[in-house]
What we know:
The protein has helices at residues 3-10, 17-23, 31-34, 50-62, 92-109, 121-135, 179-187, 205-213, 234-253, 260-267, 294-305, 323-330, 375-385, and strands at residues 41-45, 68-71, 83-85, 88-89, 140-144, 161-164, 196-199, 218-220, 275-281, 284-289, 312-316, 335-337, 368-373. By secondary structure, the protein is α/β, with parallel strands linked by helices.
Amino acid sequence: MFAERQHGRAAGLKRSKMRAAALAPFLGLDLPALRERAPATIVVTGSKGKGTAAVYASAALAANGLRVGTLTSPGLRTNRERIRVDGDAIAPGDYRALIARVAAALEEGRDVLSQDGYLAPTGLFTLAAARHFLDTRCDAWVLEAGMGGASDEVSLFAPGVLVLTPVFAEHIGIIGDTVSDIARDKLGAAGPETRAVLTLRQPHPEVQAALRQSSAPLRVVRESPLPDAVWPPSLVGDNARLGVSAALELLSALGITPDVECTRSTLGSVALPGRMSVHRRGDQQWRADTATNGAAARAAISWSDSMTPATATLVCVPDGKDRDGVRDAVHRRHHISLRTDAAHLSFTEWPEPLPSLAEVDLGALGPRVLSLGTVHFVGDVMDALGVATERAFTPPAAGARAS
């Protein structure tokens, strides 16, 4: 799933959505036919909070009688977590069989696939997830974009509802040269089949301008979609509400009246390690958030301080993310800058070589540790703490589901 990117980058190539589209038939995916299932598909784009929105949207759909396939990226502890059905990561045996099927499709199509670039891992996982969701007869799909929107492989599947989480200046020069370019690309995942594009109030003026210029059926979510539901704190809660709003929009399109009580109960079961989450390591309390920009880091620190200030803060911000913004947020606190060893991440913008989490004496960090950084780094933290990440939420029992 990662070999083409490694070889392609070494050869100076870029990711190719055309190559992914050409591979789809070898996996038994009829893309034109699959576009007809737009009324049952949510696509989530944006720069921050996509995974939260996707999981909460999936939980709300599952609470109302739908079998839901969810694609997110990356996984925290295993790549199996990228592909879930009704909240559960794909089982190891099913995952091995699915990856073998992808490998066979690549081999079968090798001579006819587009040669304009390489297959991105997120693109391969998107196609693999679609195959698995068909095989397991999922009623609804929730697909998180890997990077971008129109340029991402999720745009091969038409969304009935498009979600746009907050957009920041990341992947400049890859998706586009300005924040406006990035916002337009992410909005470009919408198509004529899209019933609604839901977003929060965007913090960046250039993104707000791009939204005003868009012809998409846009709606800004400002209020909680469910009275009395329990939501995560701060920015995580905002994206959770956005995801549930998208699910309610999709349910309306399908003619399903939401079961409010069942939905509240299912949302209460959502577990999002690394999204302002709290864990134990012996006598230590660990707090974790996938913050990689200044605004998210400040929000996570404020959340942490509302309990008791952390005795140490671990920070992992690779090249291409808002290193200066995160450093400014933590500069008055005892913090340690770290790296993660994910192959596609680099840390060349840091003035000194960075240690990994494995090189840190965790017991010496004090009773309260806050960890901020990429999903891969938070995955390292979850590994070190032994946190369960297989189940994202618990759907209601079949008899309790709405009809």
